[in-house]
Amino acid sequence: MVTPRAIGDAPSDVTRRRLLHGVVALPTLGLAATALAACGSDEPAPEAIEIEPSVAPQPDETLLDELALIGAYAGTIAVYDQLRGSLTAIADQHRAHARELGATEADLEAIEPIPPNAGNAKQALANLITRERNAAGQRSDAAASAEDPERIRALTFIAASESSHVPELKDIRKGVNA
Amino acid sequence: MTYTDPAAVAAIADVIEAEQNYVFAAGLAGAFLKGGGRRRAVNQLAEHRAQVQTASLMIDSSAVPQTPPGFEPPTPITDAKSARDSLAELSNALVGFYANIAAVTEGDDRRWAIASAQASARDAIQWGAASQAFPT
Fold first, then answer.
1. What is the spatial distance between Cα B22 and Cα B129, in angstroms, rounded to a whole number?
2. How far apart, in whole angstroms, are the C-alpha atoms of residue B86 and residue B82?
3. Environment class of residue B93 by beta-carbon count within 10 Å: exposed (0-12), middle (13-18) or buried (19+)?
4. B118 and A136: CB-CB below 8 Å?
5. How many CB atoms lie within 10 A of CB B128?
């Protein structure tokens, strides 16, 4: 197993959660608010000064995608309880991937289930297969462009694991009645 | 690209040995398998020999391990079930070897290592293993 390690460039928990809930923090928001507050004031305009733009932590897309995958599994299991036995182990593997990528337990607890856009269990599994295929490609790309050897190694393991979920899910789908 | 860094050479030599062992095990397993399993094992002989060739081109020929005269798989192959189990086990083990190569290579070579790790993990499923978070 890959030794868990902190990812140095991982975004803060707050940022990750905001992004997960669709809230995007704009780095210029504070500057805009300051400028608006100055408008209409009797005070003279302040001298032009150079302000360093605030740098928002870059979201780790790989981790966000991993968290979204966990949400997709939770949503599918919530709607199609008959898949719980088959899918729980795979969902747990994604939790292990997310931890490896820097997720905290609070991050994992904050994940909300994503309801499947499917009319039956077979379609829901087909959606998960598509998600896993995309995830395996994304992790592969991330490993190919990473610089830290330990992160490359971890992402390669994760890419392999997620690639193996595709045939596993296909096997599960074969045994499911629509 | 020819790698000379000792860590890279060692990682590549390791995968060559592991692939040579896989070829031996697949040949042995083929004798116990029938139907689709046998066809898969036979196809994998060629696929894994090709992996040996590709990896061998990445390091100086003097560093390429000789093909061993034999190999005893961790799970002895004595029947169809143990043949599948053994190939599943060896397939998962290959993932780690390729991850090590990915970590010490770059460009197309790293892409090849990542794709090989993925193919090995899928092979393990095809041989009947359950998926793992970090295949070993």
1. 16
2. 6
3. middle
4. yes
5. 13
Instruction: Tell me, yes or no, if A133 comes closer than 8 A to chain B by beta carbon.
Output: no
What interface predicted TM-score (ipTM) does this complex get? 0.97
Q: Tell me if chain A has a CB within 8 Å of the CB of B5.
A: no
Tell me if the pTM is above 0.95. Answer: no
Per-residue model confidence as pLDDT tens digits over A83-105? 999 999 999 999 999 999 999 99
Contact criterion met (CB < 8 Å) for B121 and A97: no
What is the set of domains in chain A, with CATH numbers?
61-174 (1.20.1260.10)
Q: Taking the CA atoms of B97, B102, B103 and B105 in sequence, report the sign of the dihedral they define.
A: positive
The alpha carbon of residue B36 is apart from the nearest alpha carbon of chain A, in Å, by 16
**Helix, strand, coil % over all residues of chain B, rounded to 5:** 70, 0, 30
Name which of B100, B114, B130 is nearest A140 (Cβ-Cβ).
Answer: B114
What are the backbone dihedrals phi and psi of residue B72, each rounded to the nearest 5 degrees, phi first?
-105, 105
Residue-wise pLDDT for B73-120, tens only, equals: 999 999 999 999 999 999 999 999 999 999 999 999 999 999 999 999
Domains (ranges, CATH) in chain B? 6-126 (1.20.1260.10)
